[in-house]
Amino acid sequence: MRVVGTRPELAAARASSSGTVAVVMTMGALHEGHAALLRTARAEADTVLLTIFVNPLQFGPNEDFDRYPRTMDADLALARSIGVDVAFTPPREVMYPHGEPVVRVNPGPAGELYEGASRPGFFHGVLTVVNKLFQLTRPDVAYFGEKDYQQLGLIRAMARDFDLPIDVRGVPTVREADGLALSSRNRYLAPAERSAALTLSRALRAGASAAAEGADAVAAGLAVFAETPEVKLDYLVLTDPLLGPAPAHGPARLLTAAWVGATRLIDNVEVQLP
Ligand code: PAF
């Protein structure tokens, strides 16, 4: 595996890549969810590029940019074990050589809902860096986790609306045996918070089973949140698979975000309405 940190090194590595080129973009602190993205890419593409960059643009002023976990050695070891070809680990000045970008990708109205409502500017920051990394890595295919479901949808919309010749593929969320969705932020949780954090996946499961029987998914999920008042719910919404208004029948998506102590977690599941 080649580890590169500059634009010329990346360009050289990209120029010598053959066949279908896949990219997996991350902020490091890799876990089994990222490993699933990388393994899928490894199985489906000829060349696998991994990017590791904690993007300051997508953190609000009171968010966890400074304390976001940085585990580069372990990340590179995991990537090597999966057979990644190139890891791009740029420092901030390589990604933003002219300082903070003045022009940013506008995520549109869907970027102002849910995560965008609670984290103003978040999706502008995400789409701007993803767009830059698309330009720098020029992949044929890109893999993103369904765990960040709204992010996945907006990246797909950006690829479509900006005519990017990139196939954006979603990979299902990886969960612990007890249901907790894997997240780099789980490592912030103290043991009692780790138990409380199960409220999110339990609420989603309850909502999905209620919905399958024709009952109100959100009401069923809210009843689970009500049992754990120390978990502060941000939102629990039922939408269509593209995050539009909830349909009357067929496939839908149930999404949630909540605070467990100082840690904000998100999760979502597919729902089938009868
Ligand atoms: O999902 C993430 O880790 C980040 O939002 C991404 C896509 C790598 C952009 O910084």
UniProtKB/TrEMBL annotation:
Sequence positions that bind ATP: 27-34, 145-148, 174, 182-185
EC number: 6.3.2.1
Catalytic residues identified in the record: 34
Catalytic activity reported: (R)-pantoate + beta-alanine + ATP = (R)-pantothenate + AMP + diphosphate + H(+)
InterPro entries: Cyt_trans-like, Pantoate_ligase, Pantoate_ligase_C, Rossmann-like_a/b/a_fold
Coiled coil regions in record: none
Any one GO molecular function term: pantoate-beta-alanine ligase activity
Cellular compartment(s): Cytoplasm
Keyword annotations of the record: ATP-binding, Cytoplasm, Ligase, Nucleotide-binding, Pantothenate biosynthesis
GO BP terms in the entry: pantothenate biosynthetic process
PANTHER family in UniProt: CYTIDYLATE KINASE/PANTOATE-BETA-ALANINE LIGASE, PANTOATE--BETA-ALANINE LIGASE
Subunit structure of this chain's protein: Homodimer.
Miscellaneous note of the record: The reaction proceeds by a bi uni uni bi ping pong mechanism.
Cited function: Catalyzes the condensation of pantoate with beta-alanine in an ATP-dependent reaction via a pantoyl-adenylate intermediate.
Family: Belongs to the pantothenate synthetase family.
Protein name: Pantothenate synthetase
Organism name: Dactylosporangium sucinum
